[in-house]
Amino acid sequence: MMPNIGKKLREAQFFLEKMRDQEKRAFGDKEPFDFYLSAFLSAVRTVDYRLRHEEKATYPAWRTAWNAAHAAEDKRITFLNDDRRLEVHESGSTRMQLTEEIKVGMGGSYSDRSGTLQVFGCPSPLVGVDTGTTIYKPRYVFMSDEQERSATDVCAEGLRSLEQMVAQYSADQQRQTTSETPAACPSLD
Q1: Cβ neighbours of 170 (radius 10 Å)
Q2: If you count DSSP H runs as helices and E runs as strands, how many of each does the chain have, helices first?
Q3: What would the DSSP string read from start to end of 126-171?
Q4: Bridge-partner residues for 147, per DSSP?
Q5: Residues 22-65: tens digit of each pLDDT
């Protein structure tokens, strides 16, 4: 694989893992998810830009044919590229932040990598009201195919499609290079 392209794919994977870690957190700053998403989208988009720059003679026509033969994968990649355009050049990503409610009853606790919450006080039956608490944990989603889908799932699928595309391009270029290499001259011994 072309080193500059492989590095960008690894960069996208790095930021995807950061998003996955961040989405598990109920407490603390919520903004890092968006920072990681923006970096992920930029890394993904750069793969195509680099291929168009480094492989000018072959990539554009090859990509057009690949897109036609791989409509579902192309749709996933295009979704990420379009969202990156909105993130960078317009009003931001189409990613939505919903809320997951986590109920924690009296004497209970909730814990994740961002912290722990323990609930103490009078038991609800003694005071006649719910004395538990509710944690409001963010849930990051995209609208994809007219349904809410986890933002990290959508990103992971798009990255897998991009990796497939790059692997196919690399393999096709390798085969073409191999077929164009002249055969060795036979020995005259």
Answers
A1: 16
A2: 6, 5
A3: HHTS---EEEEEEEEEEEETTEEEEHHHHHHHHHHHHHHHHHHHHH
A4: 144
A5: 999 988 888 999 999 999 999 999 999 999 999 999 999 999 99
Q: Residue 126 has which token pair?
A: 């003694």
* Chain segment 81-107, per-residue pLDDT in tens: 999 998 999 988 889 999 999 999 888
The pLDDT, as a whole number, for residue 174 is 86
- For residue 165, give the nearest of 4, 3, 5 by alpha carbon: 5
pLDDT tens digits along 134-147: 889 999 999 877 89
pLDDT score for 64: 96
| Distance set, CA 143 to CA 84, 147, 148, 149, 185 (Å) | 15, 5, 5, 6, 60
Whether the CA torsion 91, 92, 96, 101 is positive or negative: it is negative
The bridge status of strand 109-112 relative to strand 96-104 is unpaired
Contact 116, 109 (CB under 8 A): yes
Q: Give the three-class secondary structure for 189.
A: coil
* Total Cβ atoms within 10 A of residue 181: 8
The residues with which 18 forms a beta bridge, in sequence order, are none
